[in-house]
Design goal:
Order of helices and strands of chain A: EEEEEEEEEEE
Oligomer: heterodimer
Structural class of chain A: mainly beta
Number of helices of chain B: 0
Radius of gyration of chain B: 14 Å
Radius of gyration of chain A: 13 Å
Number of helices of chain A: 0
Number of strands of chain A: 11
Number of strands of chain B: 11
Distance between the termini of chain A: 36 Å
Helix content of chain A: under 10%
Chain lengths: 113, 116
């Protein structure tokens, strides 16, 4: 089954404790992206990757890091999480970019206390 | 700054009625306009998309109307059903025109409730 998977689905952590949210797709897509969803703000893009070893900042990259060492994986790293990073995070992938259908993962709900 | 303004924030429609959600944009380089549907607890999923070379696109009960001169586009859901109750996001990108072509800008979303 073609899908985007994220882990963990739910995470409660404390300020400053490094964490990684994993994202994996099995569709051989070149493009992957991370979004955060907050009430009243919609979906905002954090980082994206056009292909292996090629990443760039989205609209809200502060406090986040990403890497793309393999085509299928695109982890999101929070080196020192803060309460304002409490949010619902979605990973997405598409064939070649945002002009193609984005396939979203199920989401990761992160709470930073 | 690239923005997409979406309205209304919430919408209640009776079963069988027409749901209309509007979006407006500023960046004339935008050339791809998708709509995503999100059910509670799920990730968004592509519903329908349009490029500015056409003024309307229809897929079943869902229609996008596009007004290039006004820089507006809208989603019409005909014969709305309770199963259509979800949050709808419009989006825009200069996907085919260069600068920013790997970024997708979303509206803030419309929560649609279709009541029986």
């Amino acid at each position: 089954e073609a899908q985007v998977t994220q882990n963990p689905r739910y995470l409660i952590t404390v300020t400053g404790k490094k964490l990684t949210v994993t994202c994996s797709q099995n569709m051989n897509h070149e493009y992957m992206s991370w979004y955060r969803q907050d009430p009243g703000l919609g979906l905002r893009q954090i980082y994206y990757s056009m292909n292996v070893e090629v990443t760039d900042k989205g609209d809200v990259p502060e406090g986040y890091k990403v890497s793309r060492k393999e085509k299928r994986n695109f982890p999101l790293i929070l080196e020192s999480p803060s309460p304002n990073q409490t949010s619902l995070y979605f990973c997405a992938s598409s064939l070649e970019g945002v002009g193609h259908e984005q396939y979203f993962g199920p989401g990761t709900r992160l709470t930073v206390t | 700054q690239q923005q997409v303004k979406q309205s209304p924030q919430s919408l209640i429609v009776q079963k069988g009625g027409i749901s209309i959600i509007n979006c407006a944009y500023e960046n004339t380089a935008f050339d791809y306009f998708p709509w995503y549907q999100q059910f509670p607890g799920k990730g968004p999923a592509l519903l329908i998309a349009i490029r500015p070379d056409v003024s309307e696109k229809k897929e079943g009960r869902f229609t996008i109307s596009f007004n290039k001169s006004a820089k507006q586009f809208s989603l019409h859901i005909m014969d709305s059903q309770p199963g259509d109750s979800a949050t709808y996001f419009c989006a825009a990108t200069p996907a085919y025109s260069g600068a920013g072509s790997y970024q997708l800008t979303f509206g803030k979303g419309t929560k649609l409730s279709v009541i029986p």
